[in-house]
Amino acid sequence: MPVADDGAAVVSMYTSEATIHARAVHGWFAAWRWALVWATQLVFYGLPWLTWNDRPAVLFDLGARRFYIFNLVLYPQDFIYLTGLLILSAYGLFLFTAVAGRLWCGYACPQTVYTEIFMWVEHHLEGDRQARIKLDKTPWGANKLLRRGGKHLVWIAIGLWTGFTFVGYFTPIRSLAAGALQLGLGPWETFWILFYGFATYGNAGFMREQVCKYMCPYARFQSAMFDHDTLIISYDERRGEPRGGRSRTADKAALGLGDCVDCTLCVQVCPTGIDIRKGLQYECIGCAACIDVCNGVMDKLDYPRGLIRYATQRSLGEGGAPLTLRRVLRPRVLAYGAVLLLIAGAFVTSLALRAPFRVDVVRDRGTLARMVEDGRIENVYSLQLMNTTETPQRYRVTVDGIDGMRAVTRGEAALAPAESRWVPVAVQIGPAQAQALGPGAHKIEFQITREAQAGQADVTLKEASTFVVPR
Q1: Which of 103, 116, 448, 459 is the 20 to 30 Å CA partner of 154?
Q2: Would you give the distance in Å from CA 228 to the centre of its chain?
């Protein structure tokens, strides 16, 4: 602590945290983490290359305002489905957190997944924990430059490939690859590839646990979803204390010690650098690395596994009582599950019953009403037809609501696959009908029918509007 000339102490409000060098760990939970790494990355990196109906299987074409997801073709008007998906994700997170804590953070969160990948590269190029600590203290030389420079080159390559793949969800990835090979990428594509590449490189390579501890809001509000029956990673204090070192052949009872040998391996493998023996902490991401390494120590000492394990606060307080079904199916879990099933059912049903086309009716604001030949009154409308299938479709437009009314389509009511088009439609009534109705706006209804094709039935959508009779 520096001291000023007048004797006053200067206290720094910023403390630089030490670099966390997590030790490599193997075990059942580590295998599950890597299984999730492979599964998520095979989907993320592979999906843009998958072809479906002569186009990418998943493509968010912002320029054309089309969103292709396998057989689905969505328009901006289908934003409700994105809302439903976000609500499903939120309730799913609430449910899993209430049952078993931060499973998402520990196994499938992109920050965890890419940090795991970057740490694997670091481990193979710089060595395990002690080797990396030693390398940090070593002066710069050929060996350090080669190892550290090689690590960063691989990290940058992974980051750029991740950014390229992400942009491939918005620009057909084969066209994107051809443009990249010819150095012909557009400015926006180049910017987003570099932006997401840098974000991956910085978050997974440098910030790591800082993202989980300080930037992620989930760590702050997770406690609102925890209760005494939530399954969390816990240290069994009754069994482990008092802790202390001993030989493998020593009698722990005679020494007055618990099962914990105070090896600190649980701290060394933790990616956020916490000591799980101090109890539940918001920094814990639930990766279970401490369980794997502790079980390995217990095996070597011929002690029972589970000194650190998934447990509930209630079971630990009751002396390690097993988790019962009644504790799992408690009111909070049932409420989350019921809401999740209800929303999921509504979401799937809505998608299954979704019409094969959409229609928006807009009045011509420039000409509300006018008189044409034979004294007929005419209103002009624009119908936006959107073909949500990937086959050509033809449509028939009729109108109902006033006797003797007729609709005249001034343009082809035929759409190519996934096409959207504005079609002008004139609606006319005779002078007798106009006189009987009187001036003002009168309700009418457009009926737009998709003409039947092979294997398809007629589908009719109805849109309400008004017909104006001038004074």
Answers
A1: 103
A2: 28
CA distances from 236 to 279, 281, 310, 322, 403 (A): 9, 15, 10, 13, 82
Distances (CA, A) of 370 to 364, 374, 378, 401, 445: 11, 12, 5, 19, 20
Locate 467 and state its tokens. 């017909």
Q: Residue type at 23?
A: R
SS3 133: helix
Cβ–Cβ contacts within 10 Å for residue 61, how many? 15
**Pair 212, 204: CB distance under 8 Å:** no
d(CA 77, CA 386): 10
**Location of structure tokens 């070597």:** 300
The two beta strands, 58-61 and 357-363, are unpaired
Domain ranges across the chain = 28-224, 232-323, 357-469
Q: What is the pTM for the complete model shown?
A: 0.82
Residues of the chain with pLDDT under 70: 1-7, 10-16, 320-325, 411-412, 453-457
Q: How far apart, in whole angstroms, are the C-alpha atoms of residue 156 and residue 200?
A: 9
- Cα–Cα dist 197/119, whole Å: 17
Q: What is the pLDDT of residues 206-265, one digit of tens each?
A: 999 889 888 888 877 777 788 888 888 999 999 999 999 888 888 888 999 999 999 999
Per the CATH hierarchy, to which homologous superfamily does domain 357-469 belong? Immunoglobulins (2.60.40.10)
Both tokens of 255, joined, read 């020494």
